[in-house]
């Protein structure tokens, strides 16, 4: 399966002598060195791919370059160097007219602030992208109405934006993006302006929609819990660079450096980890027979704890072919909850009755 979106060695530099600044960055210069010369390096050598139907989350603190990176993906900002390919097409090589056509029909954006037109009704706001495309009025209103229903706003079509709560206004923004049937959704801190409870509702809404629509989404956030909840894959940015890319489990269990590890300290691990990330793959011979109560590699940490509490032996983890791929001893679960700064050491694996060590293969 080919990637839907590819970013290759992207740089974005603001200020004087930008090409020279890129050369210096490639040679090992950092942001501070360039800043002293009046040049700002917003994004430095960013590369990643996004597969069709995937939610790819880019997270980092304010000033890390994540929003600048997002705006290069649809051509709102021109990269100083590097390429962006969408379905194999090099967006950085398109003319302004062709790029506007791609943005109008294939890429939609959902902003942090709702950006609704106060003088247009809810359905007219949701239909705006289709209006830009030149879709006839009857068709665009029908498609906008369908999108509003998908987003839980059936019955609010004729209301005005100021009659809606913040969460409902953000749903209109999401419906507007969905109505165009774009292949790619870019979401820039789309839920960060909302109250915590409404924010979680919007996360739920997005995940529910994704099960139906299978959109390709790039989602920007500074909240690691949100990134862990939404992202199929996550890129962590620091000072303009992507310092780690991986699944939520990768970043939580195997942080690339101390900076990434510091982000994970306050994350509720039990909502992220699964059996595959905590199981011991070296299985003792007496444990290989303890498969009466089993889990799968995707079993949640919460469910593992519930299973383990009822057992006097480790939980056996079986793959789709009912093959033993690991076990989860109770002390390993306690280790992941009790010491969140490091992965627990593997349990010892003594010899089995035949004198051989039993090793489960993933």
From TrEMBL:
Residues 339-362 are annotated as: Disordered. It comes from the Bacteria. One of its GO terms (molecular function) is ATP binding. GO terms for biological process: glycine betaine transport; response to osmotic stress. The keyword Oxidoreductase does not apply. SMART domains: AAA. InterPro entries: AAA+_ATPase, ABC_osmolyte_uptake_ATP-bind, ABC_transporter-like_ATP-bd, ABC_transporter-like_CS, Gly-betaine_transp_ATP-bd, P-loop_NTPase. Residues 5-264 form the ABC transporter domain. This is Glycine betaine/L-proline ABC transporter ATP-binding protein. It comes from Streptomyces cupreus.
């Amino acid at each position: 399966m080919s990637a839907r979106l590819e970013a290759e060695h992207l740089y974005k530099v603001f200020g004087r002598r930008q090409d020279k600044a890129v050369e210096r960055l490639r040679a090992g210069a950092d942001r501070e060195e360039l800043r002293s010369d009046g040049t700002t390096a917003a994004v430095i050598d960013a590369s990643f791919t996004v597969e069709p139907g995937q939610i790819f989350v880019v997270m980092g603190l304010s000033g890390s370059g994540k929003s600048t990176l997002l705006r290069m993906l649809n051509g709102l900002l021109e990269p100083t160097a590097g390429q962006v390919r969408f379905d194999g097409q090099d967006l950085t090589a398109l003319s302004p007219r062709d790029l506007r056509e791609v943005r109008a029909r294939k890429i939609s954006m959902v902003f942090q602030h709702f950006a609704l037109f106060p003088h247009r009704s809810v359905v007219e706001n949701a239909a705006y992208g289709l209006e830009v495309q030149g879709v006839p009025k009857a068709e665009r209103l029908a498609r906008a109405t369908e999108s509003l229903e998908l987003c839980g706003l059936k019955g609010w079509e004729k209301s005005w934006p100021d009659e809606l709560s913040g969460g409902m206004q953000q749903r209109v923004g999401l419906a507007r993006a969905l109505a165009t049937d774009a292949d790619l959704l870019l979401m820039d801190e789309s839920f960060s302006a909302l109250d915590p409870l409404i924010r979680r509702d919007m996360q739920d809404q997005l995940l529910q929609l994704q099960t139906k629509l299978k959109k390709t989404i790039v989602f920007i956030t500074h909240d690691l819990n949100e990134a862990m909840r939404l992202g199929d894959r996550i890129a962590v940015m620091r000072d303009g660079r992507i310092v780690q890319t991986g699944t939520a489990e990768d970043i939580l269990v195997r942080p690339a450096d101390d900076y990434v590890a510091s982000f994970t300290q306050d994350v509720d691990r039990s909502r992220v980890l699964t059996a595959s990330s905590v199981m011991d793959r070296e299985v003792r011979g007496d444990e290989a027979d303890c498969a009466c109560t089993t889990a799968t590699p995707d079993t949640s940490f919460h469910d593992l704890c519930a299973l383990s509490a009822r057992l006097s032996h480790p939980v056996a983890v079986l793959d789709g072919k009912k093959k033993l791929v690991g076990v989860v001893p109770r002390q390993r679960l306690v280790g992941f909850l009790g010491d969140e700064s490091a992965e627990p050491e593997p349990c010892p694996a003594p010899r089995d009755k035949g004198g051989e060590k039993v090793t489960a293969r993933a």
